[in-house]
Amino acid sequence: MPQKQPPRRQSISVGRGTRKRDEDSGTEVGEGTDEWAQSKATVRPPDQLELTDAELKEEFTRILTANNPHAPQNIVRYSFKEGTYKLIGVVNQLAVHFSQVGNLIPKDSDEGRRQHYRDELAASSQESTKVVISETEILEEEEELKEAEAETEAGSQTDMPVAEVAEKVTEEELMTPKQPKERKLTNKFNFSERASQTLNNPLRDRECQMEPPPRTNFSATANQSDDITKVTQAAKIVERMVNQNTYDDVAQDFKYYEDAADEYRDQEGTLLPLWKFQNDKAKRLAVTALCWNPKYNDLFAVGHGSYDFMKQSQGLLLLYSMKNPSFPEYIFSSESGIMCLDMHVDHPYLVVVGHYDGNVAIYNLKKPHSQPSFRSSAKSGKHSDPVWQVRWQKDDMDNNLNFFSVSSDGRIVSWTLLKSELVHTDVIKLKAEGSTMDGLDGLQLHTMGCGTAFDFHKEIDYMFLVGTEEGKIYKCSKSYSSKFLDTYDAHNMAVDAVSWSPYHTKVFMSCSSDWTVKIWDHTIKTPMFIYDLNSAVGDVAWAPYSSTVFAAVTTNGKTHVFDLSINKYEAICSQPVVTKKKNKITHVQFNPIHPIIIVGDDRGHVICLKLSPNLRKMPKDSAASRTDWTSSCGTCCTGTPHSPTTLTLASREPYPPKKQKAPAPDTSA
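That's the Dynein axonemal intermediate chain 1 isoform X5 sequence above. Prediction below.
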């Protein structure tokens, strides 16, 4: 141990000497600067650009703005003042990068002061409870001591009640905690004094009652020509607006509804009832004719009459619009029932009608009065029996309007409209075959045929078909009035309707009260298709959108829709459309544009029905839609084979009119 003491002292002295030396060297300036400079030397990357002094001295200014580059610049708002959409000039440039909902409250705020005051109250109440507990313990100990002293000292009994009362008072004071005074928070933002505040008078309601003005009843007679006609157009517009709101659900179904169940039906479709048109004046009249207006697709004409010859009354011509189902647009009344009608293609305001008494009349929709513009009479060659069908034809050589009519009296008459009268010309007189009788003096008597329906060819102007009550169909020509071009033994009862196909020049269709619908080729005397509908068929109609679709109505209240391209043997839709079993459907018509049909019954009602997608399939194209009828109808539905004939169905575009010469009549017919 003594040997190691001298080196320890030496080390201490050496340490003191070095510390002085460091302090002296620290005062020198510039010593160690080279080492510091070497440690701070810049390191240049190998790919740094080498710029000249001019490039280094060039300044690039960069302007920092507070605009948000992602803020939209094309926000528009609707201006109710100007009634247009206007571009907003001021765009919010604030961009929030981070936001967090917290619960921190500044100490200087009112809420912070309230919380601080509540914390102080809680702390003071806890301290007071602790003090009370400790004092109660001390008092209990003192009481025990006093009780012991009281037992020993008997003379102190007289002073006990006073001492006990004092002790109880002190105990109650100690047990009840002292609540600190509530400090009043001053409002820094309210510098108003009570002396400077003005008194606000309470609001009071003032009311006054006056004597009501005297009332008088005013009544006068308004003339239709003076007052009502001035508001007719406005009233019609308001009526349509009210009906549009009333039948809004029906209008939505007409425009947009499509039966989704058709996707799961292979070869079936449905009819959706839309509007029901009826009028009080036509309650006891049957619907005897239907016709769509060729110009306005929402307007159609309805003829009202009676098929019962024992219950004949007046007739009505009503024109309804789908825009106003509640009331007809035009009403024309007649003394005799209307049995048929037709609207002119070029002049859609002209309506020709045929009456039960054999007269024909023409109504002009531009003229407000209810009387017809032209009317036949006994002097001008009216029919002697009911007129069952009328058809407008092309103008004659002098550009005069003309139409044809057929009646039960066997006459087919051509009527020409002159300036003030109707001129008639008998085209042909129907004669029943095999009914020639020998009269007196060797005279031969011919029984007249009763025409019930006819239709003109769509291309060949002179050719037309006539159906009779005997069930026969005659192919006639305007050029020959004594002979028929051909005769078809079509039905066993009266022919109710005959219609040429709008797409094929050789095909026509007929229906009868013998429950059958037949499709013919006019070059063959046997039908290609025969359909038995188990009830009398009132009317048939070809569809305007497809060459294989047609509809038929029967007296049992059903509407049948056929599509030969889908099913050649039965209807793809057979649906009852009237409510009561006693109702009989009389007529049917397709709308030329919209996928709807209208049907009329013998109670004067007209029902509008929408075709489901399976009932209105359009042809794909002109090449794909062409069908060889020989392959589809080589054998009739009855199983009777006939000679093969190739009938090619045309596409949806109509054929251009062709002028052909009338062939010589077939004398064998």
